[in-house]
What does this fold into?
Amino acid sequence: MFIDDSSPDGTARRIQNLMEKDPGVQLLNKKVKEGLGQAYREAFQRVYESDRWDRIFMMDADLSHQPMHLKEIDSALDDHAFVVGSRYLKGVSVLNWSIIRLNLSYSANLYIRLLTGMPFSDCTSGFRGFHSGLLPLLLSSDIKSSGYAFLVETLYDVWKNGTDIGEVPIVFVERESGDSKVSMQVFIESLVTPLRLRIKSLFGQ
It folds into this structure.
């Protein structure tokens, strides 16, 4: 299932062409851009209602998340309920990022771990796999984030629920074309969310 959040780059049209050749390809075409979090929530709901799959995989479609790692994540799901593809599990496995962007990403994970207590090396990775039995939890969780912080808040809720979570190393490759679109609102949300989760845990929520 491809999720197109009103992208102007022609993604939806290309996926529609693929659907004509392969009935297994699906498109969730959102007419209004509402952010990463809402797009994933709608996808989770559709997958849950279909009740067709035992394992769900999340990844970017620009090949920065390399399909070859799907096998490793799938294998790890034999032993864990939720698996994160980590860029930082064995040193730093990121290609073609500037030193500034790499330091920001690495520091963000330190900040998240410090505030939330999560033990994972890559709390912001969007390359994940999990058993479909977790879909009710993900759909019922009171997740407020709409941008990339959605990934952090989702991982936090799954972790606090006592879910068995594993990590496997991946190599992240910067996309060859296009630009990452991070608004100031999304950036601020990413800073505030770990603090909000910390306060939430202090009050036993």
About this structure: The CA atoms of residues 1 and 26 lie 4 Å apart. The two ends are 33 Å apart (CA to CA).
